[in-house]
Amino acid sequence: MSDIEIPESHPRYLSLLTRHRIEEGVEKGITSKQGLIAEGRGEAFDYLLGEETTASADAAERAAAAQLLLAEHPVLSVNGNVAALVPGEMVELAEAVDADLEVNLFNRTEERMRAIADHLREHGAEDVKGLTADGRIPNLDHERAKVDADGIGAADVVLVPLEDGDRAEALAAMGKVEIVVDLNPMSRSAQSAAIPIVDNIIRAVPNVTDHARDLTDATEEEREKIVREFDREAALREAEDAIRSGELD
Length: 249
Ligand code: ATP
Ligand code: MG
Prior knowledge:
With 249 residues, this protein is an alpha/beta fold. Helix content is 53%, strand content 11%. The structure holds adenosine-5'-triphosphate (ATP) and magnesium ion (MG).
C-alpha cells in the first residue's frame, strides 16, 4: 500500500496515511514497535477531537512559533514516530525558527539513532544532533538521560513532540521552556509543558511553521505578547472539553 492508493475522500484518510507511515517507519528501522502502540493511543484521542486543529490548538501553535523565534538556542527533538510522520516538516520548522534537530529515543539503540539521523538528512537536514550524547538530563536512568551537551543540554527552548512523561517532566525541571505536542491533554507530557499543543503532529508542525513565517517580521515585543497571553491551563481545559463534548462522525 502506498500513500497514493488511499483516496483523499476517504473519511479516515489522515488516520490511514498516518498508520501507513508508522508501519513504514517500523519496516525501515526508524520507529520501534512501541511506537505503534503510541500511535494507536494518539489516534483514539484524535478521533475524539474530531481529527482537526481546534482554535485553542491553533493558538498554542502560534505561541509555540513566537516562543521558538524568541529563543536563544531552540532545539527540536525527534523520536521514531516523529521521524516517520513528519521528517520534512520538522526540517522546515527547524529552518524557519533557526533551531537544531536532535534525535532522542525512549528505547535508544545506536542503529535506530543512525537510521533516524540518515532519514532526516534525506529530508534535507544538514546537521543532526543526538549521536554525541555527551550530556545528561538529571534524574533519569542512564539510556534515557542521554542528550548532546551542545544540543538539548544547552537549549533554552525545546520542542518535544510525543515525548514520554518522565523525560518531559525532567526537562521541565531542568528549567527548559518546553513545548509539547501530544494529543492527550491528560498525559504528563502535556501537563508539564509551558506550551502544550493538543493536536496531531501531522497538522501541528506545518502550522507552527506557518505561524513562524507569519511572525518573521514581528517585533520582539509582539512575539513576547503572544507568549504572555497564551494560557496553558485554559488550553488543556479546552482540549479536554473538546474531547468530552465532541460530536463524532
Ligand atoms: P505519560 O503519561 O508518561 O506521558 P503516555 O501514555 O503519554 O505516558 P506514550 O504512549 O509513550 O506515553 O506517549 C505517546 C503519546 O503521544 C500519547 O499521549 C499519544 O496521545 C501521543 N501521540 C501519539 N501519536 C500522536 C500524534 N500523531 N500526534 C500527537 N500526539 C500523538
Ligand atoms: Mg505522554
